Recover the amino acids of this structure.
C-alpha cells in the first residue's frame, strides 16, 4: 500500500518544475483507479515517501535488495510485487501526508534527471518498441508547452504568417487555461501560469540531459549504471 500525498513547493523553481513533472505523471498513469485496476505491471507505481508492506511479503520478494539496480526503486518494487502475483494499491492522502522533495534548482535538475529516463523506461508498455520511442515521448510534453508560444512570438514579430499565428494563439491559450487550473488547484498564485513556457523549457533541459546520460546515474556522490 502506497500513499500519494501533497507536494510542498517552497521556491520559485519548485513551483515552475514540479507541476510540470506531476502533470506528465498524471497523463501517463491517470488516477488511483487507473493504477489499481490495470492488469499490467508497467502501470503500477509507488511513492517511496510512504509505503506500507508486511514483513513477510517484504522478505519473500527480496525487499529493496531485489530492486537495488533500479534508479526508481519504489516504482520498481510496486511492479515487482504485482508481477509476482501480490497486490499493490495506490491511495491519495493529501491531508495526511506532505513532502518537500527538492529545495533548489540544482536539486530539481539532479533529482528528476536521475529518474525520468533511466527509471522511466521501466514504465513504458509494448516492450522494445516502447523503449525505443521513449525518448521522443519524454520530450513531447515539454515541446507541446514550449513550441506554441515560441511560434506565437515569431508571428507577432512578423517572422511567420497568419495561419501559424491563429494556430499558435489557440494552443497557447488552451495551455494557459490548463496551467491556470493547475496553479489554482495547488493553491498558488495564478500568475505562475503565465510563466509555464519557462517550466516547459526547464523540463526539456532536464529530459534532454537525462536522455544523453542514458542509464548512467549520479546521485548524492554515487555513480552507477541503472538496469
Amino acid at each position: 500500500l502506497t500513499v500519494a500525498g501533497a507536494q510542498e513547493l517552497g521556491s520559485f523553481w519548485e513551483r515552475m518544475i514540479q507541476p510540470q513533472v506531476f502533470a506528465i505523471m498524471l497523463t501517463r498513469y491517470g488516477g488511483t483507479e487507473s493504477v489499481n485496476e490495470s492488469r499490467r505491471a508497467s502501470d503500477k507505481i509507488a511513492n517511496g515517501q510512504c509505503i506500507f508492506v508486511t514483513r513477510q511479503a517484504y522478505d519473500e520478494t527480496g525487499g529493496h535488495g531485489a530492486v537495488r539496480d533500479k534508479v526508481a526503486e519504489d516504482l520498481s518494487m510496486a511492479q515487482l510485487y504485482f508481477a509476482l502475483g501480490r497486490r499493490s494499491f495506490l491511495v491519495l492522502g493529501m491531508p495526511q501526508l506532505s513532502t518537500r522533495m527538492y529545495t533548489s534548482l540544482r536539486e530539481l535538475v539532479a533529482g528528476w534527471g536521475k529518474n525520468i529516463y533511466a527509471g522511466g523506461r521501466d514504465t513504458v508498455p509494448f516492450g522494445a518498441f516502447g523503449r525505443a520511442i521513449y525518448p521522443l515521448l519524454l520530450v513531447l510534453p515539454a515541446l507541446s508547452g514550449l513550441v506554441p508560444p515560441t511560434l506565437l512570438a515569431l508571428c507577432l514579430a512578423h517572422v511567420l504568417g497568419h495561419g501559424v499565428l491563429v494556430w499558435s494563439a489557440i494552443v497557447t491559450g488552451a495551455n494557459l487555461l490548463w496551467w491556470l487550473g493547475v496553479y489554482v488547484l495547488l493553491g498558488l498564485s495564478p500568475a505562475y501560469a503565465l510563466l509555464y513556457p519557462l517550466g516547459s523549457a526547464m523540463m526539456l533541459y532536464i529530459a534532454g540531459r537525462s536522455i544523453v546520460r542514458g542509464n548512467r546515474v549520479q546521485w548524492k556522490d554515487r555513480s552507477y549504471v541503472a538496469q
Remarks:
- The two ends are 25 Å apart (CA to CA).
- The mean pLDDT is 90.
- Strands lie at 2-4, 6-7, 90-92, 98-99, 216-219, 222-225.
- The chain has eight helices and six strands.
